[in-house]
UniProtKB/TrEMBL annotation:
Domain Antenna complex alpha/beta subunit, first and last residues per copy: 4-41
Region forming the signal peptide: none
GO molecular function, one term: metal ion binding
Pfam family, one: LHC
Organism from which the protein derives: Rhodoblastus acidophilus
Principal localisation: membrane
Protein name from the UniProt record: Light-harvesting protein B-800-850 alpha chain
Top-level taxon: Bacteria
Entry function: Antenna complexes are light-harvesting systems, which transfer the excitation energy to the reaction centers.
GO biological process terms, semicolon-separated: photosynthesis, light reaction
Localization in the cell: Cell inner membrane
Gene Ontology cellular component list: plasma membrane; plasma membrane light-harvesting complex
InterPro entries assigned: Antenna_a/b (IPR000066), Antenna_alpha (IPR018332), Light-harvesting_complex (IPR035889)
Record keyword Oxidoreductase present: no
Length: 61
């Protein structure tokens, strides 16, 4: 590890939670950006809602 000396400045019990927390926050922000800026992602989460609606109308109609 070429950055091993960082732990002489920052205690690992403080640095590791900060590192993992920042990675988590970045991942959540990326997912929210994809969710709010695309049209296909929310439709993907609905799981084929259009196919189910089409089948329902043919059965009911």
């Amino acid at each position: 590890m070429n950055q091993g000396k960082i732990w002489t400045v920052v205690n690992p019990s403080v640095g590791l939670p900060l590192l993992l927390g920042s990675v988590t926050v970045i991942a959540i922000l990326v997912h929210l950006a994809v969710l709010s800026n695309t049209k296909w992602f929310p439709a993907y989460w609905q799981g084929g809602l259009k196919k189910a609606a089409a089948i329902e109308t043919t059965i009911v109609g």
